[in-house]
Amino acid sequence: MSSSERFFDEMLEDGGGHRAPYRQYGSWFDNEDIGRLRKKASEAEVFFRRTGITFNVYGEQDGDERLIPFDIIPRIISAREWARLERGIEQRVRAINAFLHDIYHRQEILRSGRVPVDLIAENEAFLPEMIGVAPPGDIYTHIVGIDLVRTGADEFLVLEDNARTPSGVSYMLENRETMLHMFPELFADTRVRPVSAYPRGLRRSLAASAPMKCEGEPVLAVLTPGIHNSAYFEHSFLADEMGVELVEGHDLRIENGRVAMRTTRGYKPIDVLYRRVDDEFLDPLTFNPDSMLGVPGIMDVYRSGGITIANAPGTGIADDKALYSYMPTIVEFYTGEKPILKNVPTWRCSEPDSLAYVLDHLSELVVKEVHGSGGYGMLVGPAASKRELSDFANKLRAFPSNYIAQPTLALSTVPILGKKGLAPRHVDLRPFVRVSPRGIEITPGGLSRVALKEGSLVVNSSQGGGTKDTWVLEE
Amino acid sequence: MLGKTAGGLYWMFRYLERSENLTRMIDVGLRMALTRPDNAQDEWASVIDSAGVREGYEQVHDRVDAAGVVDYLLRDRDNASSVMSAIVGARTNARMVRTALTREVWEATNECWLQLKELLATPVAPRELPEALGMIRKQSALVRAALHGTMLRNETYNFSRIGTFVERADNTARILDVKYYVLLPTASQVGSSLDNVQWETILRSVSGHRSYRTSHGFDITPRGITEFLLFDRQMPRSLAFCYGKIGENLAYLEKGRPERLPSHDILDMCKQGFEGQSVDAILERGLHEFLGEFKRNNSTLGSQIEQDYRFHR
Predict the structure, then answer these.
(1) Which domain holds residue A384?
(2) What is the ipTM of this complex?
C-alpha cells in the first residue's frame, strides 16, 4: 500500500491531477527541468548556511550549528481554506486569552465545574504569582503559534496551542525570501499573500501593549538566553527586523522601579520586553533562584505596571497537555460559540471508561504524558513492540491521570523534491498570531514543517524534519 | 547602544585585525627562512615573540621550527591568539551584535568563518601556505570592505574602528619592539650600518615596504623605519595614524555627553608619549623602553574604554 492511497495529498488528486490551489504551480513545475530545480535546491542550502540561518545543538562545539533542511516545493493553501482557518484560529486565541484572564482572576470556569480544579492547582505551568495581576490591555498571549494538522480535504485539527514562546517565525520569513530570490517568476504568475510585514506588525502590536508607566514612544527589546540558545538566530533576527535591542539578563537591571538596559550612555528603561526566556528563568527572586538568564526583581516591576512582558508569565497553563482536551469546552465557555477548529480526539486516562478503551486499543494509539514535552515518555502504539506495549499498559494502570491518548493521525502529505522526483511527505502547519489592544492579527501562511523520511509522521527539526514555504493564495 | 554591543563590535574588529596581522608575521617568517636558512630558527622564534605567545608555544612544542610555529599561529585553538581562535572570536562577537551589523557585514564575517574553518581544518602544507595566508587576509578585507561600504557612521562604526586601531597599534609596536631587540641589543649601535634584509622584514610585516620607498626612497635606515612606523601620518599602520583614528572616533562618541570620560585623558597621555618627540630623542632614550611604555598605555586605554562605555558593567 503506497502512502498516497492512505493519506490526503494536498497537491495531487488520486488520479494524479493537481488539486485546485496547486494548478498554476503544478503546470509551472511540469515545464521545469528537474536538474535546474535540484541545482536551485542546493543553492538554497548554501544561502542558508552563508546567512547563518542555523540552530544550535546544545552542548556541542561551535562547528555544530545545523541547518534546518528546506524543501523548495511550496505548501499551498487556497483563499477559502485559509479564511476558515483564520476564523478558527482567531476564535481559539480569543478564548485562550479569556481563559488566562479568568484563571488568574475569578476562576469562573473552575466554579462552573467545566474544568477540574486539580488540573490547575497542581499544574506547574500555573503561576500563583500571576493571580490578580492585570497585564496591560488584558493581553496574555501577544504571540501565539497554533499547530495544525490536516487529515482530509476539509479536516484541519489543532494539535497544540503554543501559547508560551512559539518559535519558527523567522523560518517562515526566510523561507519566503529564499523562494522569492530563487523563483521570482513564480510570484509574478501566482498571487501569493505576502508575509514580510510580520516584523513591523509585531513591533506595532508590542508597542500597542505598552505598560501604564510608559512615557512617549515605547522602548521595546527582545530578551534572549544568549548565543548558545538553539533559537538564537531567530531572536537576533526578530530584534534586527523590528529595529530594537537584543538583550540578555546581564544587560538588565532594575532602576527606579523600571527594568533598564545598560547602554553606552547609562541605563535606559524598557517598556515592552519580548522575552524568549522561559517563565522559570525570568526572575530568580520569584522563580528558579539559580537562573542567570533573567532579571532579579522583574516580576515586582511587572506587577506594578512598570513593564509589559510578552508573553505574560503563566501563559503556559493554556497550552498544557492536560488542559488540551478541555479546549473545546474552553472555547465554548468564553466565546459562546461552537469551536470552528476541532481538537484531535483525546482520551483522558484519568476517566475509567477512557482508560479501559485505551488499554484495549493501545497498539493503535499514541499515548502522551501530560506534563512531558518533546516526545519524552510517549508511546506510539503502531510502532511499539509487544513488550513495550505491556510495560506501558502497567504504567498506565499505575498512574492513569498522568496520561492522555490520541489516535494515530493520518496526516496529510505534500510532495518534496526527492532523489527520484516528487515524493509525498507528511506536514503540519504553524500559523503565527499577534494579539494586541488593536485586535488579533494572523499572518497569512506560517511555518510548514515536513517529515523528510518516507512514512515518518515526525516533523520536528530536532528529529530531522525540514520546512517549506507556505503560500496562502489571494482570492 | 547597549554596552554589550559596543564591546562586541570592539572585540569583533580587534580579532579580525589580529587574524590579519598574524598572517603577515607568518609571511615574514617564511620569507626569512627562505632567504636566510641558517637563521631560520631565530626568525621563527622572533615571530612567536612578536605574536606574544612564546610561553604557550613552549608548553606544546619542544622545538621552534616552521611547521610548529605556523600550525600554532594558524590553527591551534588552545592558542587564544591563533588565526582560527581570532576568527571564531570575531564571529562569536558578530553573532552577539548581529542586530548592530548590516546584513553585508554579518554575511562577510560568517563567510570568512565558514571558509577559514574549512581551510584550517587540517594542517596547511608548506607549498599551500602563501595562498592560504592570502586567503585569510582577503576574507578579513572583505569584512572591512562591507563595513566601509554599508555601515552608518555612528557609534557602531566608531567602536568597530577603535577596536581595529587599538589592536593594530599594539601589533605595530610589538613587531618593532621584537625586531629592534633582536637586532640592536644596545643603544650604541643605533645608526650604524645594518642588515637591510632584517629591516625590510619589519616593513613587510606591516605591508609597508613599498610605501616606505615612496616616502623615504631606497635609503633604508633604522631611523627612517622607526620614524615611518611611529610618526608617518600617511602610513595606516603607524602608531601616529592609529592614534589619530582612535582620537577621531572617541571624539565622535564624546559628542553630546555632559562629562568628559577618563578614556579621553588616557588617550591624550598616550599621544603625548610620541607627539612632538623626535625620533632621535626616542632612539637616544631607548626604543625598547619607549615601545614598552606605549604598549602599556595602549592596553590601559583599551581597558578604560571598556569601562567608560560599559562593555561589561
Answers:
(1) 345-408
(2) 0.85
